[in-house]
Specification:
Blueprint lengths: L1 H18 L11 E9 L4 E4 L4 E3 L2 E6 L4 E6 L6 E9 L5 E4 L3 E4 L63
Parallel strand pairs: 1-8
Antiparallel strand pairs: 1-4, 2-3, 2-5, 5-6, 6-7
Length: about 170
Amino acid sequence: MYRVIAIVCGGLALAACSSMNLDIFKSGPTMETVRFESEPPGADVKVSSGQTCRTPCALALADPGPYAVTFTLNGFQPDTEQVEMGPMGDDTEKLRPNPVLAALTPTPPPPPKPVKKKPVHRRTVAKPAARPAAQTRPAPSAAPQPMAPAQQQAPSPSPWPTTPAH
């Protein structure tokens, strides 16, 4: 009977060893919760470790640090803060600052663009060609002067007969 009890106890001990988790003896980085706040609230927070949140919020960060934390918000200039290990005074270290505060500065408005005046399309009309200087004509006299008989020319001989005047 003592043998049966010894075998059962040995089997139970063996089963306990196989299910035991030895990871509890390993030391790993401890996590610390860090709060993030911004003025104005609602800024996006991005930690250099890749974690993100929107203020006000908190993230669990591993103790070794340091971390660069970037705050961004539309209409404001981005702000970057550093979170590092700092002594607490009792021979321990923690991530500092905690909470991380960011006062975001509004983005200045862009300079006004100069207003471009639209070119005025003037309708160009072709100028008429310059007229030559008018020749002066003698003013017509009231009555034509009869020609002197010497100035009259003799009728030229025509191959066709002339018709008598009636």
